[in-house]
Fold this sequence. Notes:
By secondary structure, this protein is of the alpha+beta class. It has 3 domains: 17-26 and 462-598, Aldehyde oxidase/xanthine dehydrogenase, molybdopterin binding domain (Aldehyde Oxidoreductase, domain 4, 2-Layer Sandwich); 31-124 and 196-245 and 250-281, Aldehyde Oxidoreductase, domain 3, CATH 3.90.1170.50; 288-459 and 603-748, 2-Layer Sandwich (Aldehyde Oxidoreductase, domain 4). Helices cover 25% and strands 26% of the residues. It has 18 helices and 34 strands. It has a 7-stranded mixed sheet, sandwiched between helices. Strand 4 (78-79) and strand 5 (85-86) form a beta hairpin. Helix 11 runs antiparallel to helix 12 (416-426) and helix 14 runs parallel beside helix 15.
Amino acid sequence: MDKEYRYIGKATPRKDAREIVTGRAQFSDDIKLPQMLYGKVLRSPYSHANIKNIDTSKAEAYPGVKAVLTYKNVPGWKWGSPRHKRVLDSKVRFVGDAVALVAAETAEAAEEALELIDVEYEQLPAVYNVDEAMKPDAPQLYSEYPGNVLPRGFPFYGPKTLQEIVMGDVEKGLKEADFIAEGTYAYENIPNPIAPEPPGVIASWEGPDQLTIWTAAPGPYLMRFSGQSVTKLSDVRIISTHCGGSYGTKGSLSVLAHGAALAKVTGRPVKVYYTKEEQFTAFNLRLGSRIRGKVGIKKDGTVTAVSAEWLVDTGATSEIAQGMIAVGLGEAQVLLRCSNWNFQPHVVLTNRCYSSSVRGFGGQELKSALFPMLTMALEKADLDPVEFFKKNFAKAGDGYYWRDGLWWVCRGADYSKAMQKGAEVFGWKDKWKGWGKPTAVDGTKRRGVGVGVHGNADTGEDKSEAYVRLTSDSIAVLYSCIAEHGTGQRSSLCKMVAEVLNLPLDHVTITPPDTLLNPFEFGPSGSRGTYAAGSAAIEAAEDAKRKLFELAAPKLGAKVEDLETKDGLIYVRDDIGKKIPWREVIDRMNTCTGQGHFETDFSFPNFMMTFVEVEVDVETGKTELLRVIGTTDVGQIIDPLALEGQLYGALGSAGIDTALFEESVLDKSTGHIMNCNMMDYKWRTFLDLPEFQNVILETPVPSHRFKAIGVGEITPAPGPSAVLMAISNAIGKKVIDYPETPDRILKALGKI
């Protein structure tokens, strides 16, 4: 760290800490509006069926019921990529698909009315496998998409959205390779990470063309785009509540559409709040990822060619799959410095619950399937994976196509230093015995180690705006439409403003996350909060300070560039006796406001490497995660506690444990998810936590004033493949399935 900061890099209390621990923080289920109704959804028991007849008369007559909607009378809105999903349809495409909506005076009345709706279904054949779904005789989910393959492209990312990687000459590259690995590898059946707070919205129409939504959306403006795309309105207001966990999932459109439709018809506010079972069965899953291809490398670890077909299972609907693919394709290039590519993705529809955004956003899905194939090549070449990643991860001056389809040149740090430091702390050289070799053997128990890596250039995705308003009582108000989703991002932005203005931290506040009050801010996705949102907040604070000094300079008889401020006093740098308080520059009837703006910049990939050690009992197949070392380089730590919390998030939220036990168990004879409750869904308790240590370097990067880059979103992504590598090394047999449950390990050992 080049300089000592007042707040940056130091642990400080979060702005929302007191209201959270005292129970004053309002989550979406805490909000109750006058005359608010409660919405419930009747869901399909079948994975694929036509609705032949639906009778809602009994439900409509039930006391307290104010509206019952079916495909016959629901607003004709659509969403998806491309727009293909109706609010309600005459065909259902997965178990849990919406059949009817009810709004009533109480949630209990709405639930009871659902049971009074009579539905006659015509069952249709279903398909749950991407290979089967693409066959000519497969059941077709949508008539407009023959072969169950959706068109490429994602308009939001621009006309040149990255849809494939085609560079160089793959056949030539394969011929130049000393070793080639090929096969089919998959990262599928991964559940929603099940945030503690289920999804929900409150929708209210303030006029025929004015929709207001209260929801736990980390990015209110992103949700506003979604609401506009569904309702075809420009006047959609999003008010974000506290978010009880998102893990990248709280932007799904189905909840918004159902609440907005019921509110439209009833003319009253309507709350739609999912049960925990609905969160399991009817809320978006992670994309299924299957890669079939080849990779060629030389003896020195140079990657000569990557050729692959990427089959992406989006389930019954694609909300944003093509966008996730574009990011995943970019991340593959950040991982591998290779001149010859032919990487072809296909978005495939199947009769399982739909997929949408989840933390890891395309890159985790791609790499978790690509890494097992890549490690096959490394094993053939007998290469140390840490040394391979040092050689191949993008460095300053390297180029890549990012999600917008444009060529970007990396301006980030050399992350090989962080890789080396992480390896030293983990003890990699002592523990790594080679491919397929355990670190230690103790009776029936074998220990093994593995490593994974991830990077994402979305740290500078999309635009951001901010205002900073200074008042006469030495208060700075940050106007930024970024919501709190558990990471402390709002507090970190306030720290940046306080640092620029040299104010006490409790003199900096931030506006509520409301699109009506704030300038544009995309939201905290893609680890963009530190760089993109931070840059806008810093620039706004600097602009406000400059304007303040312009007002103060004549009063102090000094030049603007000679002034400084601290704790609400403006003084001359070389004559600190000459000073005046802010209130003599800004009177009580005025304010001083600065503006900040950030333009999209994909030139700073971030970095995360995860080392793991596991112990496998070869008699029972049980795997215990013993130790995790997460290593990264963030340029400059903004808040150490917030950063540590994000890095510890590598375990859950569909991270490391997707390699061990997190799974959606689908009964392919009925289409039902079998573990859709808190007993059968397996996850780690506090008693099962491994030893976990973070190694954090600070190599300044030319991002903004504080030389920092965000890493929060990517921390879980390297873990799944690292665990598979560790298990393979422990038992001496290659394993490639997610999750590696005891039965799969015993099968790999030939014991069942």
